[in-house]
Amino acid sequence: MSGAPARPVRVVVCDDQMLVRTGLVTIIGAQPDMEVAGECADGRAAVGLARKERPDVVVMDVRMPVLDGIEATRLLAGSGVRDPVKVLVVTTFNLDEYVYEALRAGASGFLLKDAPPDRLLHGIRTVASGAALLDPEVTRQLVGRYASRIRPSEDGGDREVPLTPRELEVLRLIADGLSNSEIAAALVISQETVKTFVSRILSKLQLRDRVQAVVYAYRRGLVS
C-alpha cells in the first residue's frame, strides 16, 4: 500500500527585477514537487508575505529597495526569531560582501543568479530539507576573504569547544569547505559516519546548519 504523496515545497520568490522574478517563478512553478506561494519585489514585502504564507523556502535577492535582502533575512531567520523561515539567497557575485552578511543574518545558503535551473531547484530542495547549501569552493573563498571579520579579538581556544577530538577534526574540515564525501575520503570513514558526526556537532554546539558551523569554527580560531 503506497503512502500519501509528499506535500509540495512551497516557495516565496523575492526579487526586484521583474524579468528575473518571472523566470524564477516559472521554473519553480513547473516542478511537480514545488509550488509558488507568492512573489514580491522588496524585502519588506517578503517579510510580510513569508509571515502570512509560511513557505518552506524564501528565495531572496540581496539588493532591493525599501528593505534589502539582508535585513529581510534577519527578520525571517535571524537568531532571535521564534519561528524562523528558511531563506535561500540569490546574488550576482559569489564573493559579494552582502553574501557573507546574509549568511550571518540567518540564510541557509546562497546561489548565483547565473546558476542553471537544475542547480536552483536542487538548492531549494536542499534548503527545504533542513540542510545548508554552500558550494565547497565558494565556502573556502568566502571564509578566506572574511576570516578577519569572523574571528573574535580574543581567541576562545579549544577549551571552550565541547567536542571530542574527532568531532573537532570534522568541524575543521567543514570550515575548510569540504563536502561530506570529501571529509569521508580525508578521514577514511563512510559518508553515513560523517553525517552522524555533523549531526552531533550541530546538536552539541546548538547550531542550525553548516553555515553556522563554519562561522563558529572561525570565531573560535579553530581554522586559519
UniProtKB/TrEMBL annotation:
InterPro entries: CheY-like_superfamily, NreC/VraR/RcsB-like_REC, Sig_transdc_resp-reg_C-effctor, Sig_transdc_resp-reg_receiver, Tscrpt_reg_LuxR_C, WalR-like
Domain HTH luxR-type: residue ranges: 156-221
Gene3D superfamilies referenced in this protein's UniProt entry, alphabetically: 3.40.50.2300
SMART domains: HTH_LUXR (SM00421), REC (SM00448)
One Gene Ontology molecular-function label: DNA binding
CDD domains: LuxR_C_like, REC_NarL-like
Keyword set, alphabetical order: DNA-binding, Phosphoprotein, Transcription, Transcription regulation
Protein name: DNA-binding response regulator
Organism: Streptomyces variabilis
